[in-house]
Amino acid sequence: MIQPITSPIIEPAPCRRRTDRGEWCKDLVQMPFADINGQRIRFEDSGGDGPPVVFSHGFLMDREMFAPQLQALHPEFRVITWDERGFGETEFDGQPFTYWDSARDCLGLLDHLGIDQAVLGGMSQGGFLSMRAALLAPARVRALVLIDTQSGTEDAEHLPAYRQMQQTWLTMGPIDELTRAISGLIIGDPVASEPWIAKWRELPREAMNEPTNTLFEREDLTDRVGEITCPAIIFHGTEDMSIPADKAHELSELLPGCTGVVMVQGAAHASNMTHPEQVNGPLLQFLRSL
């Protein structure tokens, strides 16, 4: 069942909540930001004494894509979500960056919150940065939750078409034809895509340039994945057209501590958001085993 993208109200997480009548609350408290590596990072922290789990979103998404996991994990776990460079409400400097920089942003957020060690979960590019964080600071990563991601580069066969999408976005903006194609790849459900397309239309057109370059120009991490020895679990949609399922199985074989791949039946790229009923149970079981 498709879940709404609006995060539930869990104190002390501020800002995004609705009244009993479904209206946005007018007396909003200050939104949490952290100044990290020259960026002003927007994040949410459910608080609590449970083991911390940090979720990093995929390209063109934001922290709200993990609302179903927040609902399932809190209060047993302390759930942190954040907006990466170029997306959501993070104030991005617009400069070139790599997923190593994003990994350092994630680790910097742990510093900001006073967290020594956490489980890092990431969907697609969130997985790219989470694996890099595990390489940069292995002692700080208790485990990895990898969702519809891979260790390699963009498929060379598809890259010219993706570059054309980038140029269309930069010159014409998120026009209907483009958003239909992209949302089909990421979300796969036209109704569930509507609120995300609305968000994309609010993004500054030029702000997409550097995040897109980062996505397309990332280096191959495959030869280093074996250095990541923490426990890991992988989730992957059976209908994911962005990253084929065989990439998930290859990644599982490369990770020494991987418990296996959970194939999410009928899901496209954002499997945790669109099919949480298949993800949250195995996720909780994995987290409780640590």
Describe the structure.
There is one protein chain. The chain has helices at residues 67-73, 99-113, 125-136, 159-172, 176-186, 190-202, 209-217, 245-254, 271-274, 276-289, and strands spanning 33-36, 39-45, 52-56, 78-82, 118-123, 141-147, 232-237, 258-264. It has 290 residues and is an alpha/beta fold. It has one domain: Rossmann fold (3-Layer(aba) Sandwich). An 8-stranded mixed sheet has the order 1-2-4-3-5-6-7-8, sandwiched between helices. Helix 2 crosses helix 3 and helix 5 crosses helix 6. The radius of gyration is 18 Å and the shape is globular. Mean pLDDT is 91; it is low at 1-29.
What's the helix and strand layout?
Blueprint lengths: L32 E4 L2 E7 L6 E5 L10 H7 L4 E5 L16 H15 L4 E6 L1 H12 L4 E7 L11 H14 L3 H11 L3 H13 L6 H9 L14 E6 L7 H10 L3 E7 L6 H4 L1 H14 L1
Parallel strand pairs: 3-4, 3-5, 5-6, 6-7, 7-8
Antiparallel strand pairs: 1-2, 2-4
What's the domain count?
Answer: 1
Radius of gyration: 18 Å
CATH top level label: Alpha Beta
Helix content: 25-40%
- Report strand order across the widest sheet: 1-2-4-3-5-6-7-8
How much strand content do the residues show? 15-25%
CATH superfamily: Alpha/Beta hydrolase fold, catalytic domain
CATH-level-2 architecture: 3-Layer(aba) Sandwich
Following the backbone from N to C, one meets helices and strands in this order, namely: EEEHEHEHEHHHHEHEHH
> End-to-end span in angstroms?
28 Å
CATH topology: Rossmann fold
